[in-house]
Amino acid sequence: MKRPPLSKKFKVEIIYAAQIPMQAIGDALRGRESENSQEALRVLDIILRQHAAKQGCLLVRQSFFHNDPTNFTDLGGGVTGCRGFHSSFRTAQNGLSLNIDVSTTMIVKPGPVVDFLLANQNVRSPYDVDWAKAKRMLKNLRVKTMPNNMECKITGLSELPCKQQCFTLKQRTGTDGDCDAEEVTVYDYFVNLKKVELRYSADFPCINVGRPKRPTYIPLEFCTLVSLQRYTKSLSTLQRASLVEKSRQKPQERMDVLNRALKKSNYDAEPMLRACGISINPNFTQVEGRVLQAPRLKAGNGEDFFARNGRWNFNNKKLIQPMTVSKWAVVNFSARCNARQLVSDLIRCGQMKGINIEQPFGEIFEESPQMRRAPPVARVDDMFEQIKTKLPGAPTFLLCLLPERKNCDIYGPWKKKNLAEFGIVTQCIAPMKVNDQYLTNVLLKINAKLGGMNSLLSIEHSHNLGVVSKAPTIILGMDVSHGSPGQSDIPSIAAVVSSRQWPLISKYRASVRTQSPKVEMIDSLFKPVSDKDDDGIIRELLVDFYVSSQKRKPDQIVIFRDGVSESQFNQVLNIELDQIIEACKFLDETWCPKFTVIIAQKNHHTKFFQTNSPDNVPPGTVVDNKVCHPRNYDFYMCAHAGMIGTTRPTHYHVLLDEIGFGADDLQELVHSLSYVYQRSTTAISVVAPVCYAHLAASQMGQFMKFDDLSETSSGHGGVTSAGSVPVPELPRLHEKVSSSMFFC
């Protein structure tokens, strides 16, 4: 006799959160900001999320992903790229707008669990699977189990293989309800009692879909991963490259995809939106933009030239301030290339650009074969022992040949040894396809690191930069780099770069510090250690500006801050700007420079398309109407030429402007700062100081990769802490390179 199912009672409590006045939604529709505007928009965005949830979508904040295999692309390693779309409401000058864009996330490849594990660990047989690693990877993923087709969550793996893992089986023996308990293996239960054939699961752990104290074991081959489960671990270099490659869409293709996504969403059928009086116009918003003229550039021998379509080259041109490369050497960490030919070609190419490269010290320092399998730090130490033994004196520059282009484990220790311990400028390359273009790009970086300049803006050369030229002005670029997803214990790296040698705006230096993991606001801008000493970033940069700019203090400070969302704008002003002001006052109480604070955002979903052309918008495109903020000053700029995919503009928000830039002057300055990037011969998508800050944080973050994070890595001792979590300090750069553009 079958027992009736046990009924369960659930207590549901609905808690009142807040009342959102309908007037706020009406104001938002008309593009007016009110006290409750953000709450009103949040309510509308929640309606969009629920609408997508009812369609069975995976929800990632305001991005929605349908379970449609045509939107899937295999990235390798058991990871699938899933294309969906972002959808959110924004108030703009032309009223309430729906911001919709293509979005991509990573999901676990649906299908048999064993297939996922083989792909994820890149092995051919289940016998080669690392089951401890598999357990970590599978935990909390959802599977459908056979033969009952139930969906369950994985809580772990069995300790023993299927044919050895036992559990207690209770079987009713009579009509009185008595049960006998016996120990059976999972294998015997399915094969002998359930009469189900197991083809390969006998020798492998079972999937546990039960509770920790009441496990439920299912043979491996009966478990299939369900679709639309986010993969949140960091991607490998190859996976990331594959994702970027397969996510690219030309403007016309993207427009078509967005039109289909809007039609499929069918927002006009959503009763909650209708109740709010909202209907969606299916047409793209028409905006007016203007194209700024590319600034005139100056190369060597007084030659002026213009960039064409945001690009230029140094063919038949010399660098404006070429350096001499002397007292240098070449080290080869087992890179497979003709190093002598490379050196010869580099010297020849340098002469064509005006760089005098002397012959390197003696022989090329080759890594000894027995060191190739040694730990990275040991390999670097051994190479430096060779250098110290054989060179007559300390080199000023080292060219390092690496065996791998991406993620080479020697890179971090090598950079740390050179920049922090010895103060040697170094350039790492992994030569694959060497030609004159490649060598020119390498020389641009070497020249900038050694203190030279590759090109200048003509208006910079003639001191005709408007507001920036009229009074000593320092330009700061600020960024914080965080660890990969899942790395919650890796310190964040805060970097600030500053212009030097005013009135130049092409030359920078950097100061970098660690701070608590995942903390976005920089907390080391002002760090008084006594009544007279400040160990903060800003003092270091201001002193350098003073020394390099004919002993002038900056009257104007322009700050470009990267990587913060709109909800953090006030924190930038109240936390970071306050620290900068305090650092200035600490140096001189009577000193009151004027500030302009600008946020540069790349992580947004606004795109621009040309109405009568399938091409990207031209470089220099500026939009500051209709889709911009109804009250605050902001604008979008596409300074670069979008050669691949659809151009993503940078969204600049002006939070504070005490200096008093005119709108045109500020946009021209931002545009010009996209042309002073010394590493390349193209206009870049965001101002150079922000790019440099990102590079400095990324490069010095490599210093930490091989250090024991439980100890401080700083030669200065001590840790900075947030709460009770100690944060290891970065080693400070050697004084010989601290003012260099080492990050180029």
Automatic annotation (TrEMBL):
GO molecular function, one term: RNA binding
Name assigned to this protein: Protein argonaute 4B
Pfam families with a match to the protein in the record: ArgoL1 (PF08699), ArgoL2 (PF16488), ArgoMid (PF16487), PAZ (PF02170), Piwi (PF02171)
Membrane-spanning parts: none
Record domain Piwi: where: 397-705
Domain PAZ: 112-227
Function: Probably involved in the RNA silencing pathway. May bind to short RNAs such as microRNAs (miRNAs) or short interfering RNAs (siRNAs), and represses the translation of mRNAs which are complementary to them.
Keywords: RNA-mediated gene silencing
Family membership noted in the UniProt record: Belongs to the argonaute family. Ago subfamily.
